[in-house]
Design brief:
heterotrimer, A mainly alpha (about 220), B mainly alpha (about 525), C mainly alpha (about 270), A: mainly alpha, Four Helix Bundle (Hemerythrin (Met), subunit A), about 0% strand, elongated, disordered N terminus, C: about 270 residues, mainly alpha, Cytochrome Bc1 Complex, Chain D, domain 2, 2 domains
């Protein structure tokens, strides 16, 4: 694929080749950063209907939500929270390493990736446990206690699966991007002259952490 | 202003050559044209569905199709026109082309994302059109639950199509905002920005902030349909009105995504064709953001009869009234711009005049509908149908036609036949009013919308309306003919055939691939007709 | 440091580097806050539990945004953009809540009880005229009918301006399409008439209340309805006190769920 309108601009030798419609490598960087922040803006709004539904239904079915939340294992939720917070730290370490041209960038990206994988493993155990107990969304709810005492808990579980599921999809997507960036870092593409993709990945990853910071208390610690 | 025509014959259309260079293009001008062709194709299909709908409504009872088919016809008309035509029409087709030029930039901020946006749009659009082969969709473009979650039609596939197209819109908005912030030419300060850019900025904010909510809502609806998760199902404790809240949180800002770019075009056309500076530049820029801001907080006015509480209805009704203020500022400023100007009557300006007339009626009838007590009776009648066609067709489509005729010489380096354009304008403008004005009457007398049958007393209004639809069709056929004819045999256009002051007129028609052969420096505002001779 | 290569004077500060020590400090605070969240959740603080948990979460979020995401050192436009997303999220929550929490007699949670309450309040033999019926009818008329029929029932309400034919003038007695009788008016309320919608979503006894009230707008009194006329408008069994309504459906219109199911069936063919 070739097109003259995107020929990279050759600056001084050894410098990053930034795209032709930018004035400088820094101009390209700040533009990319703004683009990424705007992407995160739409992500906030993308998650918002689930949060709105959660607030509306929790207020109306407080008792059923409480009973539903008791079925979740808060320790696993707390563990996942710590895992993601640590992964944000290691991601920040990776970004700093790329900005300083340090070799540890690949190591920290790898740890971030493993934390994400660990998060998914915990979620896998949680999900299989729910399925085993019949704690399923909507019309699939078969758990006898909840059906008897808290029929609207089915809504709680609909929201639980949708919210953690959507978040999980974002974790998986993030893992893919981190793996790709890790590969490029391994090839030595990043350094003080060019670290944009690492920092952008970092912004995205911190956002994924942000969502979980809210999901944990909202779903696991109700009442 | 000296032009920058340089190497003979080399411009973004001719160079680089080959179909591959179009399929993989990163040039915003070419991407704009790709969108233009696609949007016009979907306009044709959506328009044919409209003609079919109006044909069925020629007489009461079954005329040419069954009720089920009719449900599908109006659903496809609405869905295609909203998602595949009116939303991308001005921003993606015209905006992509002119925005970097107006800013003095070489391209948008993220050219590859721009191309991706186009392909995402096409993927979603083809998925949507593809539902025609899978039993079609009959829910109306609003996909209200519970019918949409239970119907045997291909509703899930259609909402996934809308989901995909939504991301095209989001990414275009993201691209435009960043472009406007980061890629302005030296001297292109915020107060020298053409109002079209301000309009595209506000539109982009709406696209970025509102569309994701629709995306997730449609996902939830599809989940409800396939997995019965119960969020919108009262039998499981859910709330069908919640779907409407989620849907309209996007869809109301969506109508401003449709109309603000049109206002942007009008902002460009009126000063040029009055040879006068725009009246109240700052107020006009602020008004566009005022409209965008109010757009976010009024969605419940679509839900007065849905089971929404009276308190919420009151709040939404009250806030909706406020949108009239910035809109009014714009209307009066346009009039003030024309006052004592040297008015011209070429096609772009004719469409601008049409816009002013038609959008005024549409806007005022919007105030009627915003009045909760009146809306109880008018909701789901043809009054609403007439209102939104007046603002969407009258607003966006007239704005689009004005823009296309204004920037056509820049895009293609050719002039179309002005006489043919005036003839087409006549059919479009008169046809539009003949189609939709009777619908106000029928609606206020109680004719419901989305019904394929009606009582005999409404027959005359329906027949007049159907004849009007044929007139519109004729107008667009004539437009297609003379515009395509101009591409083959039209007079060559100069760099600045309208004697306008914007940056895009300081480069050749058509522009070179890199937009400007010499990096532009802005020394005057785009509307300084009283200070600078073009 | 060599990061000055990407450095332009007027864009300084656009890429602040987070030091490792600072990053670790932030992580530790976040972990402590997580522990705090769990601890406070295990203490019963009634209605405060939710807000406290969200408040701590917001504090954690601010730390991630300001430091890990570098917002503290970023430009104002990026800050404004990100903040705006939360503003509009707030708008979404607040205005949706303005509807959901102000609904009166929510049919989803109170449907069966609401119906029972209304049935309890209705007088036995509700199709007969009475003081209470007239009082209810007057209130319902003011709420539902005056927009078209006018406050005195002259057919000159504000919405009547756009209607042709004009709404019925109740003070006159000639030419009522369904007849100027109790059951005639209830028939109109059951089925609608011309531009007038049907009011069959109202409980049948309330429709009779309205009919009783409307008939007082002219002194002339119509005949009492026969049992057959009553049955025709939905009083299933006039010999019973409740008209037989508790036993069977109260109107001749199809329940909405039934109608939806029929539509869905048709669409699947």
């Amino acid at each position: 694929m070739s097109s003259p309108s995107s020929v990279d601009h050759h600056g001084k030798p050894g410098e990053h080749h930034f795209a032709h419609h930018f004035r400088s490598a820094l101009h390209e960087f700040v533009t990319c950063k703004q683009g990424m922040w705007l992407f995160l803006v739409q992500e906030v709004l993308f998650f918002s209907p689930l949060f709105v539904a959660y607030f509306m239904f929790r207020a109306q079915y407080a008792h059923d939500f409480h009973l539903g939340a008791l079925q979740l294992d808060w320790k696993m939720g707390a563990l996942n929270t710590i895992i993601l917070l640590c992964s944000s730290y290691t991601m920040a370490r990776a970004v700093t390493a790329s900005q300083r041209g340090e070799k540890s960038i690949v190591k920290y990206l790898a740890i971030t990736f493993l934390c994400a994988a660990g998060f998914l493993v915990v979620k896998y155990f949680e999900y299989t446990h729910k399925i085993h107990d019949g704690l399923l969304p909507g019309k699939f709810m078969t758990n006898p206690e909840l059906l008897a005492e808290a029929p609207k808990a089915a809504i709680f579980f609909s929201l639980y699966f949708c919210m953690t599921g959507l978040h999980g999809i974002h974790v998986i997507g993030g893992m893919g991007v981190i793996a790709w960036i890790m590969w490029r870092a391994h090839k030595g593409e990043f350094g003080p002259k060019y670290f944009t993709p690492v920092e952008m990945t970092g912004l995205y990853w911190h956002f994924v952490d942000l969502v979980w910071i809210f999901l944990f208390p909202m779903l696991y610690l109700v009442g | 202003m000296s032009s920058t025509t340089a190497v003979a014959g080399k411009n973004y259309l001719t160079d680089p050559k080959g179909i591959g260079s179009w399929i993989y293009t990163l040039d915003h001008k070419r991407i704009g044209l790709l969108y233009l062709v696609s949007v016009l194709f979907f306009f044709l299909v959506g328009g044919i569905f409209a003609l079919l709908v109006r044909l069925e409504l020629w007489s009461p009872g079954q005329t040419v199709m069954s009720a089920d088919t009719y449900n599908k016809a109006f659903t496809y008309h609405g869905t295609m026109m909203v998602f595949m035509v009116i939303i991308p029409m001005i921003p993606a087709a015209i905006g992509n082309f002119v925005l970097p030029l107006m800013l003095g930039a070489k391209d948008v901020a993220f050219p590859r994302l721009n191309l991706l946006s186009y392909y995402i749009f096409m993927a979603g659009a083809l998925l949507g059109v593809g539902t025609l082969f899978f039993k079609g969709v009959d829910t109306g473009w609003t996909f209200y639950t519970p019918y949409s979650t239970k119907t045997g039609s291909a509703a899930a596939m259609m909402v996934m199509a809308a989901f995909v197209m939504g991301f095209s819109s989001i990414l275009t908005g993201l691209n435009f905002i960043t472009t406007i912030h980061k890629l302005r030419a030296p001297g292109q300060g915020w107060t020298k920005l053409p109002l079209m850019c301000w309009a595209l900025y506000a539109t982009s904010l709406l696209q970025l902030l509102a569309t994701p909510v629709l995306a997730l809502t449609l996902c939830l609806m599809a989940m409800e349909r396939v997995f019965n998760i119960g969020i919108f199902d009262p039998a499981l404790g859910g709330d069908p009105v919640l779907f409407q809240h989620f849907f309209w949180f996007y869809s109301h800002p969506a109508v401003y995504i449709m109309v603000l770019p049109a206002m942007g075009v009008i902002n460009e056309v009126i000063p040029v064709f009055s040879q006068k500076p725009i009246f109240g530049y700052k107020a006009m820029a602020l008004a566009v953001f005022g409209i965008a801001a109010v757009a976010f907080i009024v969605w419940g006015h679509h839900m007065f009869t849905s089971g929404q509480s009276a308190t919420a209805g009151f709040i939404f009704s009250l806030i909706t009234m406020f949108v009239a203020i910035p809109t009014g500022i714009k209307m009066f400023s346009w009039l003030a711009t024309m006052y004592k100007g040297t008015l011209r009557f070429q096609a772009p300006m004719l469409y601008a005049y049409a816009f002013l007339f038609v959008f005024l009626i549409g806007g005022l009838t919007g105030v009627v509908l915003a009045t909760m007590a009146a809306d109880i009776h008018l909701h789901d009648t043809y009054f609403v149908v007439a209102h939104f066609h007046y603002v969407m067709v009258g607003g966006t489509l007239m704005g689009f036609m004005a823009g296309i005729h204004y920037w056509w010489p820049k895009m293609f380096g050719k002039m179309y036949s002005e006489g043919a354009a005036k003839l087409a304008w006549f059919f479009v403008f008169m046809g539009f009013n003949v189609t939709f004005f009777p619908q106000f009457i029928a609606g206020s007398q109680g004719m419901p919308r989305r019904y394929y049958d009606y009582v005999a007393e409404f027959t005359i209004w329906n027949q007049v309306s159907t004849v009007g639809s044929w007139m519109i069709g004729v107008g667009f056929v004539i437009s297609a003919i003379y515009l395509m004819a101009s591409l083959v045999g039209g007079r060559k256009a100069s760099d600045n055939p309208w004697q306008a002051l914007g940056l895009e007129w300081q480069t050749s028609s058509p522009p070179p691939t890199e937009n400007f052969l010499v990096d532009p420096v802005v020394t005057h505002g785009p509307y300084d007709y009283d200070k600078v001779a073009a | 440091m060599s990061h000055h290569d990407q450095h332009d004077d007027h864009e300084h500060g656009e890429h602040h580097i987070l030091s490792n020590a600072m990053g670790l400090k932030i992580l530790l605070i976040l972990i402590v806050m997580t522990v705090l969240t769990v601890v406070t959740a295990r203490i019963d603080l009634g209605h405060l539990n939710g807000p406290i948990a969200i408040f701590i979460a917001c504090f954690k979020a601010m730390l991630v945004i300001l430091f890990f995401m570098g917002m503290k050192y970023d430009s104002n436009d990026n800050r404004a953009f990100f903040a705006s997303s939360f503003v509009f999220f707030g708008v979404f929550v607040v205005l949706t809540a303005a509807d959901v929490f102000t609904r009166v007699g929510d049919w989803r949670t109170h449907g069966p009880e609401l119906k029972a309450t209304m049935m309890k309040e209705i007088q036995p033999k509700f199709w007969e005229d009475s003081e209470e019926s007239l009082k209810r009818g007057a209130t319902l008329f003011k709420e539902q009918c005056v927009t078209c029929h006018g406050s005195e029932g002259h057919g000159d309400g504000p919405a009547s301006a756009g209607l042709n034919p004009k709404p019925r003038n109740f003070t006159l007695t000639a030419d009522w399409k369904n007849g100027r009788t109790v059951t005639g008016i209830v028939t109109t309320l059951n089925k609608g008439l011309g531009s007038m919608p049907s009011f069959d979503n109202f409980p049948l006894p309330n429709r009779f209340d309205l009919a009783h009230y409307v008939l007082t707008l002219n002194a002339e009194k119509p005949a009492t309805p026969t049992a057959d006329q009553l049955k025709a408008v939905g009083v299933l069994d006039p010999s019973k006190d409740d008209g037989g309504l508790a036993a069977g459906g109260s109107s001749k219109s199809i329940p909405i769920e039934f109608a939806i199911d029929r539509y869905v069936e048709a669409s699947k063919k």
